DNA sequence: GGGCAGGATTGGATCGTTCAAGTTTCTGGA
DNA sequence: TCCAGAAACTTGAACGATCCAATCCTGCCC
C-alpha cells in the first residue's frame, strides 16, 4: 500500500519547498517556468491531489455548493428538477465546484439545514429552487451574508438578490400567439390559484396576448391546484360552456394532460398546450413550452461563482426565454 | 460578527478541556453524566458545530458518499434515478452522511473522477447504479479497497461485492401470471437485446412463467433498444402475426407506451404491462411493475454504512421484490 | 568588484479536530 | 488510614494545506 501523497512528498520529489508547490497550484505566475514544469511533472508522476479538507481548514472555503432535492410530488414535474440538477452538477464541476444534496420537509427545517451545512461543511454557497412570495430562506441567507442564487425570481423585490429565471409569461404568450395564428379566438386558460409568483406570471402571458388580439378573456379560464384529475375537471367545466374555448393553454403538463383527456371524451379534439416540456409531454405528443433548464443551471453556477470570487459586486439577474415545442396537440 | 465557535470555545465555556468536549461528541459513555450535560448545554448555547474539515483531516473520514447523476436520456426512465436519489439523500442524512453528486460521460472518465473525489475529498464510499457485465468500475474500486455498494447485481459473480437489487424476473413473472389469470394464453414479450443483465433477468420472468403454464413462448417475443418508437414497431410486428399475442409484457414503460399505441391503431385494445411505474405510466393508466426505489436506496445506505463501520465483514446482498401496479391497461 | 533591487524560495505558525499518553480524582477493600 | 486500580479529565502532538515574514539568488548598474 503506497503511503499518502502530500504536498511535502511532491516538494521532495521535485526538490523544491512546500510553498513552491503551493504556488504552482495557486499562483503559477510567480513561479519560474522551469520550476513550475518540474513540479507539475512530480504532481503527475505521484498522482498528487490537494486535500480539500486541509485547504478548507486554512482558507475557509470548501468549493462545495448545495442544492435541495425535492420529493417527486406528482412525478411529472419531478423531471424538471432532475434536469436542472444534472446541468448544475455538470457546470459546477467545470468550474471546480462540487454539488452536495440535502433534503428538507419544510422551510424552517431547511433553514436549520443551512446552519448545519454552513457550520459543519463550510459550504460556499446555495442554489435555491421554488422560491415564492416572502420566502424566509432568502432573508435568512442574506442576513448572514451567505452567497446564494435562486432559480426563480424574488417576486416581491426583483433587486433583492441574485437570480436566474425563465420568462414564463413569454412562454404562455408564445403558446397563445401560436393558437391565434392558427385561427383560434376563444383560447382558454387552466392555471393555478392566484398568489403564486410562477402561476400569476404564466397566466399573465396568456391574458395579455389574448387582450392584445382583441379577445375578452373573461369566462375563459379556470384555476386549480396542480394535477391531472384537476386539469380534466377544469377542462370539462370550460367545455360545457355554451360558447366553449376552441383551444387551451395550461400552466403545467399535468393540467394539460387532464385537459387533453377531457377534450377527447367530450367531443372533437381541440388543441392543448402544456408547460415544462416534460417526458410525459414528449411521450404523448403534447405541445408544450420548454424551459432551457441546462442553460438556467449553467447561469446559476456562473452567477454563484462570480459572487464567490467578488463578494461585493451586485450582479445582474438573468431572465431566459422559453421555447414552444410543437407536437401533435397544437 | 460573532467569531467562530470552535471546540476550544465550548471547552472554555463549560470549563473543561477540548478533549472532554470531543469525548462528549464521540464517546459519551466515558464522560460523567454531570459533565456531559454541562458540555451539551454549552454546545447548544453557543451553537457549536464540529468542523467537518478538521475532523476529516484527523480521522481521514469525510462522512460523504458520492452518486453519479446521469443525463436524462429519453426522459421517461430518468425519473427512476431521480426517485432513487431522493431516497438515498434522505436515508444518508438520517445516518449522518451527506450525498455528493458527480457526472461522467463514460466509464473511464468515471474512474478518473473516483480518483479525484477520493484524493481531494476523502470520500467514504460510492453508490453505483446501472452496473453491467464486466463493469470496470467495480473492479477498480474493489482493487483499492474503496467501500461501495451497487444498485444492481454484479451479473458475473453474485458474491463479487455488496449489492442491492430488485428482482426483475419476479416482476415480469407477476405481470405474466396476472395476464394468465385473466384468461390470456398467448402473452407476448417486448424487451431488450440479450446480453444486458437487467434485460435478460426481466425476460426470464416472463419466459419461465409462460412455460410453467404450458405455453410455448417461441415467436411471441421481440428484442430492441429502448424507446417508444421501437416499442411500437415491435408490437406491430407481433400483432401482424397470423396467431398474434392477446396481451403484452414489456421490459420498460417506454416500450409499453409504444406497444399501447400500436395496439390502439391496429385493432381492438389488448392488455399491456410496462416496467418501472414511471410518472408517464401513472399519467396514462398504464399497468406497470413498480420498483421499491425508496427502500432500495435506504438499503444501499444501510449496507454502505455497515461496511464503513466494519470494513472486514462480507455483507449479505439484498434482493427486493417489485409490485405490480394495476391500472386501466391490464 | 561591490552593492542593490527585485523576485524566487524557505521555515515556522496556524486552521480545528482527534489520538496517545499523562495526571488527577474517585472508589472500595484491607 | 492507606493504597491499588479504575474512572475522569487534561495536555502535547499531529493531520496537510496556506499565510506570513525572513532569507537567498540573480542580474544589473555604477
From TrEMBL, chains A, B:
Residues 5-59 form the HTH lacI-type domain. SMART domains: HTH_LACI. Keywords: DNA-binding, Transcription, Transcription regulation. InterPro entries: HTH_LacI, LacI/GalR-like_sensor, Lambda_DNA-bd_dom_sf, Peripla_BP_I. SUPFAM superfamilies: lambda repressor-like DNA-binding domains (SSF47413), Periplasmic binding protein-like I (SSF53822). GO terms for molecular function: DNA-binding transcription factor activity; transcription cis-regulatory region binding. Pfam families: LacI, Peripla_BP_3. This is Transcriptional regulator, LacI family. The lineage of its organism: Bacteria, Bacillati, Actinomycetota, Actinomycetes, Micromonosporales.
